[in-house]
Amino acid sequence: MIIITYGAKSSPLFLFDINGHKGPNAYGKDLFSFNISISSDDLTKYFLEPQACDYPVQGGKDTRTMMRTAFK
């Protein structure tokens, strides 16, 4: 499930729930956030940037940590 919302900077924030409606639906367990960034090398390229500032539940991982460990 993907949820799109807008933060204080009016840039889209994408929340990915990796297992849909199943629990626990908690940050750092199955809910992770990304925003859209523009490449500093090529202003025509956009990419999803993992957010390290989300607040994982106890025992969860922030999005950056989850991405580092998932794709080693």
Give an overview in words.
It is a single chain. This protein is mainly beta and 72 residues long. The chain has one domain (2-70). The protein is built from 1 helix and 4 strands. The chain has one helix spanning 63-70; strands at 2-6, 12-17, 31-38, 46-50. The mean pLDDT is 77.
**Estimated structural class:** mainly beta
Q: How many beta-strand runs?
A: 4
How much helix is in the residues? Answer: 10-25%
Question: What's the N-to-C terminus distance?
Answer: 24 Å
What's the average pLDDT? 77
Write a brief caption for the model.
The protein is mainly beta. The protein has one domain (2-70). It is 11% helix and 33% strand.
Task: Write the SSE topology.
Blueprint: E1 2-6, E2 12-17, E3 31-38, E4 46-50, H1 63-70
Antiparallel strand pairs: 1-2, 2-3, 3-4
Protein traits:
1 helix, mainly beta, 72 residues, four-stranded antiparallel β-sheet, single chain, globular
